[in-house]
Amino acid sequence: MLSFADIIAQAKEEDVALVQDKDIFYLVLNTEQNFLTYSLIDKVHRFLDQIENTPGAGCLVTIGTKKFFSTGFELSHWMKDFNEAYVQTLIAQKLFARILTFEIPTLSVFNGPAIAGGLLLGLAHDFRIMKEDKTYVCLSEINLGFSVPSGLSQLIKNQVPPKSSKNLIYGGRFNSQQSLKLDVVDQLFKDEAQMMTQIREFAKEYAPKGQHRSSLRDLKQNIHKNTYRDLLNEGLTLGIVQTKSGPKL
Amino acid sequence: MKPLSEIFAQVKDESIGLVQDGEIFYLVMNTEQNLFDFDQIQRMHQCLDQIEKSTGPACLVTIGTKRFFSTGFDLEKWAINMSDAYTMILMMQQVFNRFLTLEIPTMSVYNGSAIAGGLLLSLTHDFRIMNENRTYVCLSEINLGITINAGFASIVKNSLTPQAAKLLTYGGRFNAQQCLKMGVIDNVYKDEKELMNQIQEFAKVYAPKGEARSSLKDLKTNLHKQTSRDLLQEGLSIGVVNKASSRQKL
What we know:
The structure holds two protein chains of two kinds. By secondary structure, chain A is α/β, with parallel strands linked by helices. Chain A has one domain (4-248): 2-enoyl-CoA Hydratase, Chain A, domain 1, CATH 3.90.226.10. Chain A contains eleven helices and nine strands. In chain A, the strands form two sheets. A six-stranded mixed β-sheet of chain A has the order 1-2-3-4-6-9, sandwiched between helices. Chain A has a three-stranded mixed β-sheet with strand order 5-7-8. Residues 239-244 of chain A have low confidence and may be disordered. Chain B contains eleven helices and nine strands. Helix content of chain B is 46%, strand content 16%. Chain B is α/β, with parallel strands linked by helices. In chain B, α4 (82-100) packs antiparallel against α11 and α6 (150-159) runs antiparallel to α11 (225-233).
């Protein structure tokens, strides 16, 4: 089995990489803040395609390698161009919908803080584990005066209990103990050794459940029916016409 | 921070009133049972209008002044006229929707027991705190042999875990410790001093989050999308036509 150092080494200088260790597919987020940029989202889609082309048992572990898990969207771009906000929201929704209903079991590892869109990325996974020290989750949108768009907010509604969602929306920071109590995460780890143990235990139990790919995909689509539908449909019609220079959806 | 006696005094003899203390809006329900009827619904709308006319950081604290928080609908008024019951439910759904998606953070204070529609009102608020002594919640409809319509049921489902919702459905009474355990409430208080501390803490943390009014309204509308939709649309068509004599316009 690969060590975490091995995995990081295989990711080289890429901002995001897919590293396979037998039946574990590591989606390695390899920058400081792991912003949800067009480039990152595009690459993740291609990695997910790659996984879908390799049949058999398997599980996905999404993990950051540096300070943060992910801090979400690059809001400076949104401030300059509303088009960016509109398109990036829809593109992120599509990615999250794909991860939410992905054909193998999925685990997010909060190696560091998960903020705003980064937290939403984590919530699109089946399970989440979190580092005990110096790590927090924060749905920071309201602190900046932003709302959370209709599609994305369904991840907050449907992936955590009502008590947790009403606490999360007010933009507070929740440390590891609080996140565990709120059921935002499933387990905590103290250090790298414990983290790798938990990942391997996850793979041992869950990778075999990824054997029947199309059944698992269908099961997740059914269980998460409303969230999946909202992620794909909400926000498409704002009455705003895309400018010629904007990317294709 | 003004003491409760001062806040309550400002409502005088009104059945319900809005009192502002700095960044806190108190929605003060000033009768023994705080029953819902057409007049009460109208007054609630006026209080919410007043909040929405204001700007800047703020939060809402809904509280009763006497024995109960609220015991829900005035069932005597329902008994008179099916048409009135039908209309009152739909109008209450509209008010509940306004509370649910209100543009400032909201907290209900169970000064006393919250029963049936009274419990439903509090479930539209973000947070709930409860008097530790001699106070209970009870979704009593089934005890009287009546149902809870789809719009109201959506509120129950939306704000509670499945476990808590199914326990409440069967009309039992739950005291403060049980409610805390079930996640129906967020905190308990022993006496007025502790209550005012908790209100102060709430305002300190949450009033600033009420600054970006339209964003918070949008966020809550998105979060509670299904329930909001249910409150506005469920029950409209039950095949009952409003009689010419019925006073109320929907």
